Amino acid sequence: MKVLIMSDTHGVHKNLDRVLELERPYEQILHMGDIEGDEDYIEAVAGCPVAAVRGNNDYFSQLPQERIAEIAGKRILMTHGHYYYVAAGVEHLIKEAFGRGADIVMFGHTHYPMIRREGGLTVINPGSLSYPRQEGRRPSYIVMETDPQGGVEFFLKFL
């Protein structure tokens, strides 16, 4: 199974559309928030199920603040991250993920991509497709590949 993980698109379609075209076929999209009103657009162009959470710039969104997803037998905590002060570090978020029995925690907000392993927990931030902040400022996202035996791999990609 191929899952696209993205965040912080901020209502800008150009790079989102590019990623969707480049990565076809995929079975699901996970979005970590700051969609800025484009939930319907993403669902319309995705052609697959979309699970998303509300970010700090999604003022009038009905999306949940957090959600638990299960993919390939892995428990995934999805959040934008701002309630866990991720701009100052991921320690609070990691503690929360362990407390909820998550295998994977995914967040956005910082616009800095990350794939990190911490004591059996995988910590994922796809960065931003619209306003990247890391050195080189290339738009980023993550592809999650699963296999029938329950294996999961993550690939950080840049446009």
Short description:
The protein is α/β, with parallel strands linked by helices. The protein contains three helices and ten strands, in the order E-H-E-H-E-E-E-H-E-E-E-E-E.
Sheet with the most strands, sense and barrel status: 5 strands, mixed
Structural class per helix/strand content?
alpha/beta
Distance between the termini: 22 Å
Mean pLDDT: 97
- Enumerate the strands of the largest sheet in spatial order, edge to edge or round the barrel: 3-2-1-9-10
Low-confidence stretches: none
Strand/helix succession: EHEHEEEHEEEEE
The amount of helix comes to 10-25%
Describe the structure.
With 159 residues, the protein is of the alpha/beta class. It contains three helices and ten strands. It starts with a strand and ends with a strand.
Short key terms for the protein model shown above:
10 strands; alpha/beta; globular
Topology record:
Blueprint: E1 2-6, H1 14-23, E2 28-31, H2 39-46, E3 50-52, E4 66-71, E5 74-79, H3 91-99, E6 104-106, E7 114-118, E8 121-125, E9 140-146, E10 152-158
Parallel strand pairs: 1-2, 2-3, 5-6, 6-8
Antiparallel strand pairs: 1-9, 4-5, 7-8, 9-10
